[in-house]
Amino acid sequence: MIENEENRVIKIFHGPQHPGITGNMSVELDLVGETIQKARTHVGYLHRGFEKLVERRTIIQAFTIVCRICVPEPDPNEENFARAIEGLAGIEISQRAKYIRVMVLEMARIGAQMLWMGGQSGSVGLGTVAQWSIYDRDLILDLFEELTGGRVYHMYIYPGGVRRELPDGFLDRLEQFLDYLEERLPKYDNIFFDNSTFKKRAIGVGVINRDEALKHGYVGQALRGCGIKRDVRKDNPYLVYNELDFDIPTFEGGDVYARALVRRQEIRESIKILRQVIKQMPTEGDIMQKIPKHRKFKIPKNDILVSSESARGEYNYYMAGDGSEKIRRMQVKGPSLIHGFTLLENMLKGEELSNVAMIMNSLGICPPEIER
Q1: Burial of 72 per CB tally in 10 Å (0-12, 13-18, 19+)
Q2: What average pLDDT does the segment 31-37 reach?
Q3: Where are the domains of the chain?
Q4: Which are the contacts of 344, defined by CB distance < 8 A and separation ≥ 6?
Q5: In the prediction, which pLDDT does 20 show?
Q6: Chain segment 103-129, per-residue pLDDT in tens
Q7: Rounded Cα–Cα distance for residues 136 and 370 (Å)
Q8: Which one of 85, 145, 277, 351 has the fewest CB atoms closer than 10 angstroms to its CB?
């Protein structure tokens, strides 16, 4: 506790044990009463140092590390890593493998949005929604376990394609889940998105200015919640996204509620994408191209930048090789660094303590991306 001439300033740490924290991170808050005067983000309580770990390992060893950069949605890391290696090595994967990758990414997107819904609803005391959404996310994890053998870390998207073929009847079971989820969404609207408690808590809170969002490089829902239509899948298509029909939801307002509505509509768009993937996926084609053996896989002396759209926004991988079996330099830029520091710390000033968890969850911060 600190005394000054005008007010009594109380310093507290919000997390990492607090259930409203997005991962094992902490925000140091200076309070006068219930009002935040200053906020400082602290990370380093979880996985870290990924970039240097990758640079000291061969490709197959590094492949098992990158999915840990964001635990709730590891698959964009796998895909960016694989696509960067393929770009450097001149490997072209089959259309079937591309469709399977899109399927995995959109399944992961839905899973991440359901996890967000649980945290966002829990931050305003709507525990029933959290129980529903975590259960529904488990149904996606069941499918991932069937496909990859893992529920959280899948390690399925590998340079050259994907590691294994789809199990018999997998697409049918995926479609059954999509039917189920589509029927559930109106119930989520009733209990959460249209809930007067959530609206009163979220509308006008955590507002992001449109011009500031563009100036500071905010991505994902932080942009689309300001009415700015930006999405790498449309702006710079990769895999087979240019062959699929889907929309980029945007809402005006720039507040917690606008960002929530964006995520709600993105779930519906992912369902639309997955239905097209099920219908259009080629039945023939190698799921894995022939690649050099482990110790003979040399990374050409060149560099590359690849981008994708995660559930939380734009994801970038820079990779450089020097002709050896190890990556000379890798750099990861996800949404969390700018959202967790520049945006969160400025946004919390003047807010009430009770809004901290709700604002943090609306930004989709994944702490290992910061201390990567």
Answers
A1: buried
A2: 91
A3: 91-294
A4: 27, 39, 41, 359, 360, 363, 365
A5: 59
A6: 999 999 999 999 999 888 888 888 899
A7: 29
A8: 145
